[in-house]
Every structure is written in structure tokens, then in C-alpha cells.
Design a protein that fits this description.
Elements (H helix, E strand, L loop, with lengths): L8 E6 L1 H18 L6 E6 L3 H10 L5 E6 L19 H5 L7 E9 L3 H11 L5 E9 L12 E5 L5 E2 L15 E4 L1 H4 L3
Parallel strand pairs: 2-3, 2-4, 4-5, 5-6
Antiparallel strand pairs: 1-8, 7-8
Helix pairs in contact: 1-2
Length: 188
Amino acid sequence: MENNMSKDIEKILFSEEQLKNRVKEVGAEISRDYRDKNPLLVGILKGSIVFMADLIRAVDIPCQIAFLSVRSYGLKAASSGKIDMDGDIDYALGTRAEGRHIILVEDILDTALTLNTVSNRIKELNPASVKICALLDKQVQRNIDLLADYKCFDVENEFVVGYGLDYAQNYRNLPYIGVLKREVYSGD
Ligand code: 5GP
Ligand code: MG
């Protein structure tokens, strides 16, 4: 049987090569801005894992990593507007956020509801600073005043998958980012 994930992809937006090159540039920016600051990069699970893995290897200053589990989409292809994020954040991070320079690492900023909630919760812990690093920025749907401090690429209002981004938990392992065919999620 043929490997069939690619049949569900309308078009490739960013190839492996483009992702590699751009992530390197963003890693270099972070390295320059955070020299001597020992930043704590906090990946938002699960979508950020592939980006995070490449990004930290493009950062050449001392840094630490942590992850937070946040859920906004459920199984659908449209934002639910509901964020599940409970419990003790320091405990979830496995380290204290107080006094740290935090960089939140997200797969895609869409309405920004998710990151707005996360960054407000983190700010309650008195970090030295909080910035946002997004792989993709989908600004058309934004009605919250929140911008990415670092981003790799802008995207239009299309549903994209791959390089960590899923549809109903699938396609995260595609090495490129592509637009999912509408027929795949048109039931939602
Ligand atoms: P926001 O709270 O900014 O509206 O939603 C952010 C989250 O929605 C992202 O972390 C991601 O999980 C999901 N999301 C938004 N747009 C897309 C998209 O085009 N593709 C995928 N796979 N997820 C998306
Ligand atoms: Mg996500």
C-alpha cells in the first residue's frame, strides 16, 4: 500500500528545506537577544514539539526547556475558544518561572486565545519577561491584541498540518507544512 498522508494535502506551503533555513534564522535571533539571560523556552504541547526540537538546536546560548499541555481545538478544524489549563504551572513546567526570561513556543497563533491565556497565567508567577515565538502566524482571525515577538512564517486563513500540526491528532509527522484538503475535514 502506498504511503497515503500526502494524498490529503492540497498544496505544500513550506518545504523541509524552507523550514530548516527559517528556523535557523529565528534561533539565531533568539541567541542574540537572550545572550546571558538563560531563557526558559516553554513549548505548548503537542503542536510545538517538532518546531521546538529544531529551534533549540538553532539556539547556541545556554537555555532550558519545559512544556505545557494546553488544549483549544478538540477534534475540530475550528477554534473552540475554550482553553483547558488547570493546576500548578510551576509544577507542570518542572521548574519555577519566577524571575525567568520565558519564551512561549507555539505552533500557530490563530485567534491567539490560547497564548493570551497561557501568557497571562505565566505572568502571575512574576517572570522577568514573557515573549512569544510562533512557527506560524495566522493574523486574519485575531481580535485580541497579541503579536508574536518571533515568528517563522505568516499564513492565510487556511487549515494547515504537518511539522507538528495536526488534524484530529494526525499528520503531525509530515516533514513539511501543507494545506489540508477541505474534503478531509468538511464534516466538521
Ligand atoms: P488560537 O487559540 O490562537 O486560536 O489557536 C491556536 C491553536 O489552534 C494552535 O496551537 C493550533 O493547535 C490550533 N490551530 C489554529 N490554526 C490551525 C491550523 O491551521 N492548523 C492546525 N493544525 N491547528 C491550528
Ligand atoms: Mg496547539
